[in-house]
Each structure stands twice: as C-alpha cells, then as structure tokens.
Amino acid sequence: MPTLPPVLGKLNHFLQLHWRIILIVVIFELSVIIGTAHFTYVLSNHAACETDIITKTTIRTSTVTSFTKTSTISETPSTTSLVSISSTHAPSNNLSCHIGFELIGGKCLQLLTGVGTRANGNHNCWLHGGSKLFSIRNEQENSAILDFASKNNIGNIWTGLLCHGHTISTCIWDIVSGSAESYDNFASGYPNVSTASCGYFITTGKEAGQWKTGLCNQQNSILCELPPTIYDKNCEKNFNNHCYTRFDDAYTVAEAHEFCKPMCAEVVSINSGDESRYVQSIYNVKEHIILGVAVLNDNNIYWLDGSSTVFINIGNNDNGTCAIMDVSFGMGYWTTIECSQKAWILCKRPAGIEC
C-alpha cells in the first residue's frame, strides 16, 4: 500500500480519531443554515403583513492577526484605582460600556487615578475588565481624546502603541491589532526609538494632540479601552457582543460542546488578541481552559462555532488535534492536546439573545 504524504497522513489520522467531533460540527453548520433560511422566510412574511418596520443597529467587530512567541508583557503590581464615573445600562440591543467606562468617540474608555509606568498602565488596565491602553485610529478619535484630556485636566497619557523602529509601520497597537501606518499624529522627529519605544499622547502646550515615544518607565496618565458591546441583562461577563460563562469543571471538547449547547452557547473561540486578553481577565489564575477548536497544524484550525480563522496563538504544538489555553496573565498561548484530555470550560454565546 503506498505511503501517504505527511500532511494527508495526519489529516487521515485526525479523521479516524475525531470523526464524531467533525460530525457534530457538520450538523451544527447545517442547523445554522436551515435556521437562517427559516428565519428569513418568517421575517419576509412578517414584513408583508405589518406596516410598522423596526430597524436595529448592529455592531461591527474588529479582527487582528496573531501573537508572536517573542512578545512579553510585564507583570507589575496594581498601584492605581478607578475614577468614579456614574453609568447606566442601555436598553437591550443598544451599545453599552462595562461599568466604570464611558462611551467616547465610539470606544469605551476609563481613566485611572494617578500616574504610572507603561507596564503599570498595561497591567492595571487588564485588571479592569481585561481592557488595554487606548488606541487612536483616525483624526476624529484623536480630537475626542484631546477634548477629553482638556476637560479633565489630564497630563500626558500612555497609548497602546509600541514602536520597534524609526518608521511608522514599525509602531504596533496593542494587542497585535495593526500598525499606525493607516493613521498617525506623531510630532516632528518621531517615532524615535534611539532612546525609547513607548508611545504617549501629549495633552498640553503647542504639541497638544500629537504623539511621541518616550522611556517606558516614565510616569504618565493611564487611559484604558474596551470595545462597546450589546447590553444583556443575563450576561455577567460581556465583551464585544458576546457573553462568557465560566465553569471550573474539566471536560473534553466533545463533552464541553454538549455542556454549553443548552445555554445556546459553544465552547469558547478566540478571535483576537483583545479577546484573548479579556478571557484571561475572567480567571487570573494559573489554569487552562479547553478551546472549541480542531487543529490540523500551526496555520490551519477550525472553530466549532463557525468563527473565521483570523487569530492563531499556538505556543506549544504537541501534535494534538484539540487545544487548551493558558489563562494566567501573560500571552495566553495555546497548547495542542489529544482530544481525550480535559480542561476547564468557558461557554460563549452572542449577547442579547433569548435562549
């Protein structure tokens, strides 16, 4: 019998061992297609009978690429506290911010009291809802931040921008979410990484509203960012239009799939560096969770919830076809495992739905 090429051999081995999981995925996808068709049919009939049309606004989600194994995040004890900001929940299916965050320029922002180093800022934002240091993607956002800083008498603010060279394309936003190449407002002569690489926002003087790079251990104000999300009264952990429910019980991925299903949820998928950071903030313990993913190789994975593959963070490939994620504070690397292995469960569902 002829020997199969390595890739085909591994695929054949995967199909033999995990045909049940694949069957579950196929059935799930078919149910989604049938459900969508039925929903469209019902909706069209309803529209023909009703004279009042209710329109709803949807929220677009952002995507990023992947972490690199050489990236690091410094763990620094918390030294700052929250600024007291009153907030009210928006009605169902409207934009909402995590408690303590304020919707500014289309983003949820929270100013922490006091100042800190860049590492302080990064860690303290993570402690507040898994947020990150703020980013600026266009002129409107830049103006909104300057206006916010002026009204609140804030000193220079750390941004989530790290520069690795003297060109703008080498300046990358946290968390691996693109470069500043599409928009920047650097002051003349910057970025300058000869002495420093951490980006900050100037709030006063003639250069107010412009950016510079400086020493990462200098003291600046800390402004944290989260994406707005759909309000869901039944969702305690709500991030970027999805609800997360934690269960500290160990299951295989197939068992976890069945466990999450009655909640209209699926085993968690990780679709960006920001989502990875948020999931870690749910736990803040040295533990692993099972991922709802089938792994063929480092660059070829399939999410059980049908998510597109826009983010891969495999740190340790042990030639398994399932994966777990490290949820302690850090890079959130994934490790491939055999699908018979077990880990804690995190169920994920769209926010705002009735189950």
UniProtKB/TrEMBL annotation:
Transmembrane segments annotated in the record for this chain: 21-43
Keywords, alphabetical: Disulfide bond, Membrane, Transmembrane, Transmembrane helix
InterPro entries associated with the record: C-type_lectin-like, C-type_lectin-like/link_sf, CTDL_fold, Snaclec
Name of the protein described by the UniProt record: C-type lectin domain-containing protein
PROSITE patterns per record: C_TYPE_LECTIN_2
Keyword Hydrolase among record annotations: no
Domain of life from the UniProt record: Eukaryota
Keyword Plastid: no
Domain named C-type lectin: residues: 104-225, 239-348
Species of the source: Caenorhabditis elegans
